[in-house]
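Researcher: Hi, I'm a grad student and pretty new to this. My advisor asked me to get structures for two proteins we've been looking at. I'm not sure of the right format, so I'll just paste the first sequence and hope you can take it from there.
Model: That works fine. Here's the first sequence with its structure tokens right after it:
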Amino acid sequence: MTDIEIKGLLEEHEAFTESLKILIKKILDANKVKYHLIEWRTKDFDSLKEKIERKKILDVKSEITDLTGIRIILYYQSDIDIVEDLIRDNFKIDEDNSINKAETLAKNEFGYLSVHYIINIKDERSKLIEWKDFKNLNAEIQVRTILQHSWAAINHELVYKRKEEMPQELERKLFKLAGLFELADEQFEELKSRDNAIEEDYKVIRQENPFENEPLNLLTLKTDFENANSRLKEIVEVGYSSGFDKTNGYYKEELSKIIIACEILGITSFETRYKILNHRIDKLVPTLKSMLASIRGNKWSGSYSFLTLITLLLNMNDLQLKYFKTNVLYADDLWQITKDAVANNR
């Protein structure tokens, strides 16, 4: 294969890589798959030419299947199975060249873990004008967890291309670490399952009881907002009547701010929180109107969580407000508007 032919093939794959990356992101997002990172690359000219010459490759397109490479890095092992189903639904899989590295290890071995799929686009997609040029191109999609990726990255950084090149002492330590990483992956999976189970338990408790004596944490707070009671609804109605746009529900980042605000105010239970919310609800209208006036006619959404947070801030003195700001991420201009409105109306 001539240099010109190699460069032409890589140009095809550069366009393919870009389109494939965008498609995979859309597939994962549409199916609400949380991922840590998506990496992509097209093999570079020097690397490809060296491999062709070293292995005396005659048919590059069929013998080298990773000219386009996509790597999906996930949080949990169980997500790998979900992503596998999505890959199989959306692409043709070359089963002979795809591999699950875990299946190559004996029961008493630890090492590199990742799933590699060699894919090309399905016939129905290849009929679309934006995909027809990629009909005969292959790509490799790697799927692994963050911990699997970390181990592989460290292994790669040691620059030993073959197992035989690595000093035995280093090899032993590296593969001992592989066992620890694999165990940690299993423990994170258990934590995830337990977290889901606790959340479901809280939902049952919330339906049966007023939740007033439960401890305040992210899960109980989330459940409380999902089952908005009359006290929360009263705060929200005040927000809407003050001019804030209706936004049902809550935002997770605001829940963390509420937790911090409660800690500053010494609130440890829902009963105490409700009392403090009621204590300043009459000050909420002028505070919110002042905030809206400061943004000169721009819209401001009033979620359950945001309006609850503002009501809590009305209970803080200047020192507590300053401490709150140092512990949360809050845009400086919006914080100045919020702080001034709270300070002038509490």
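Researcher: Oh nice, that was easy. Here's the second one.
Model: And its structure:
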Amino acid sequence: MKYSIILPAYNEEKIIEGTIMKVLDFMREFDKDFELIIANDGSIDSTTKIIGRISESMPELRMVSNIKNLGRGAALSNAFGRAKGEILIYIDADLAIDLELFPRLMAAIETEGADIAIGSKHIKGSQVEYPLLRRIASKGYAFLATLLLSSSVWDFQCGFKAFRREAIQKILPFVREKGWSWDTEVLVKAEWMGYKIKELPAKVVNVFERESKVHLLRDIRRMGGGLLALWLEKRNFTSSLAQR
């Protein structure tokens, strides 16, 4: 199988059916085998039932579920571990990033030699209309991550990323984060392990029409703690890699 598309979902009954149909329609335009995996993080609304009903008539669709809500990162790690594709892609369920980014991410991996290709809201060519406070928080987080962790990545949290199968399988055993800082840990440790990351400008679409699950003060506190933990881990991590 060529592609595994993974959508993390928690209590997404309002949007999940529309998201699934839009992604399936988009992917069927490509002459490649693919699967669509919903990484269900223990939803307690109708999300599970909706996915089950749709999957009965959609052979490309399947669900991988956490028994209870463990966090977005835990749901992604679980789904990545069960995916069958040569290239594994995750897209946030709200489809905040235009799907037209997909072929450019694939080209970065398939023809340009990248191990990981990610969308970015913070590089030249990106098209972003976010609330001002979210833009400030996002850029501030990226600046701190770059400063503390010696990373070359400009946007850790963009919800559209692609991984060469061999790369993500070797990175995941080192990833402990279960929540929103999962992306940061994956990308930073990928850099520490020598994997090539390609960052491409993303277009944010319809962000003002959706109810965000981002809680700035709470998430800033949690993600700041995640950055500090990675900073403390960096020296031991890189030293242990050098000894292998």
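Researcher: Is there anything I should tell my advisor about the second?
Model: You could mention this: The first strand starts at residue 3 and ends at 9.
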